[in-house]
Amino acid sequence: MATDLSLFHLIAQASFVVQLVMLILLAASIASWTFIFTKRKELLQAAAVTEEFEEAFWSGGELTELYKKLTGNGFTPEGIEKIFLAGYKEFSRMRQKADVSPVVQVESAQRSMRIELTRELERLDERLPFLATVGSTSPYVGLFGTVWGIMNSFRSLGNVQQATLAQVAPGIAEALIATAIGLFAAIPAVIAYNQFATRLERLAGRYELFIDEFVVLLQRQAHS
Would you put residue 127 in left (φ > 0), alpha (ψ -120 to 50) or beta? Predict the structure, then answer.
């Protein structure tokens, strides 16, 4: 009788340890794909907000009007908008103090923006290490399941006088599935992590550039 080597049959016939490894890898894959879609949407939104804000910021309008718009009812600032609000709010507060020098006014605003920048980057970077962990460890977890399955397969042949390929093949095949699932979980996670890290680095660069440019404008206002 021919041996059933279908995928589902092999998984069903695998040992408990190998099945547990497969389950862990499958759960990691589902979690990473869920995070990939969520983080992709989040980074695209952050880039779109940055584009829209920079267009409004450099349109030549009054910064006071832009500040009022971003702090108006029903408006929730995001990303670079929070950085601008933190800097402009602190600069306005320090300007109201008569004994504060222009240099201190600008430095205080810059510190506030740097703090908000750090918070925003930490928010965008949240759970990215999870993708890196899945990408780096899944192949090894799958390999562990494969080694365990092959070891059990050969142990079961210990009392057999003559081993045939038909006897060895199912055990090796079911063990190799663990490695395949490990790669299936790892490859998308690694690709997504690299793409997200690159996008986050570009966003961080744009935020840094905006802070530097905004500080120059604040210095002009402080000395006017």
Answer: left
Q: Please count the residues of the chain.
A: 224
- Note down pLDDT in tens along the chain; length 224 residues: 445 556 666 667 677 888 888 899 999 999 999 999 999 999 999 999 999 999 988 887 788 888 898 888 778 889 999 999 999 999 999 888 878 888 999 999 999 999 999 999 999 998 899 999 999 999 999 888 888 888 877 776 666 666 565 666 666 777 788 888 999 999 999 999 999 999 999 999 999 999 999 999 998 887 76
For the chain, strand residue ranges (E) read none
pTM of model > 0.85? no
Find the radius of gyration of the CA atoms of the chain.
28
Q: Rounded CA gap, 33 and 123, in Å? A: 19
Closest CA to 178 of 9, 6, 17: 17
Q: What is the DSSP letter of 2?
A: -
Task: Give the C-alpha separation, 173 to 10, whole Å.
Answer: 7
Distance CA 86, CA 110 (A): 9
Q: Are 45 and 56 in contact (CB under 8 A)?
A: no
CB 49 within 8 A of CB 70: no
At 16, list the tokens: 């408990």
Question: What does the block give as tokens for 218?
Answer: 């604040």
What is the maximum span of the chain, computed from C-alpha positions, in angstroms? 97
- Please tell me whether residue 176 adopts helix, strand or coil conformation: helix
User: In this structure, which amino acid lies at residue 205?
Assistant: G
